[in-house]
Amino acid sequence: MFNIPLIPEHASTFAAKVDPLFWFLTIFVAIFCVAITAIFIYLGLRYKQTPGRKSEHYENMALELTWSVIPAIIAIGIFWWGTVIYFEYANMPEDTYDVSVVGKQWMWKVQHPNGKTEVNHLTMPVGQAVKLTMTSQDVLHDFYIPAFRVKQDVIPARYTTMWFEATKTGEFPLFCAEYCGTEHSTMVGGVTVLPQAEFTAWLGGETGMTPVEAGAALFQQMGCVTCHAQGDASRGPQLNGKFGTEETFTDGSTATIDEEYIRESIMTPGMKIVQGYAPLMPTFASQLSEDDINNLIAYIKSLS
Ligand code: CUA
Q: N or C end: fewer C-beta atoms under 10 angstroms in the chain?
């Protein structure tokens, strides 16, 4: 098992930025906490109510303003500092290596674009932005890599994303950071960061179906093709080139066709019926795993 230090090492581009803010906040709060408590106790004893002592009314506008304005400026400064880091984390870079992650009680399943899968482990290249698209098969989980200073909820029936870029090679711990049932504490694993060339060699080592190929096979197998076949739009909407476009529904509302919309349409087809079509499609909720749905989404994306 990993030896877990109090302060994890810095292994991503975020780490060196998050830690100064963390330490500033911790020390700043500690100083104020001690100072205010000390002054509070001293003044309480010094000006204790005794028989015969009369308190006087005292006003000092300059003092009031000073201890209001200075902390306000400091608070805004802290907010600005945190926001700058958060924006960097929230803005996905263009050129990412995309990996899909499914959390389930109690394991992480990771799938690479070429179809290679890993359990409770993520292998990735150094010096390249990696993007995770994550969902859960059951309850709330949380993908957490302390050495990268990244953490993101993994939510059933929703897709969350997260990105990071490793700055050094090595082995780093991976945790589930959300209590998800009896064996939550066993939902741990590791991240291996390899040099580009080694990563490419590792990735190429296994042959299997890519998510797009697996999705195409499912598309036939589950009978999707009978209503959504290319060139025939009589029973169900065409899917070619639809990903990322806007669709209009029978109630006049619109939505962009994204991962979540496709998932919803497979699991609860009656939720949004495309204009001009009847609600014929049955649910596939009990027949498909989250991995199957990820593959179908990859296939539908590839039709664009
Ligand atoms: Cu999954 Cu805790």
A: N
Whole-number Å distance, alpha carbon 117 to ligand 1 midpoint, is 19
Structural domains in the chain, CATH included, are 1-46+92-208 (2.60.40.420), 211-302 (1.10.760.10)
Q: Which atom of ligand 1 is nearest to the CA of 187?
A: 1
In ligand 1, which atom is closest to the CA atom of 179? 2
**Residue 273's closest CA among 288, 259, 256, 253?**
253
Q: Does residue 171 have a pLDDT over 70?
A: yes
Residue found under tokens 């995309």:
98
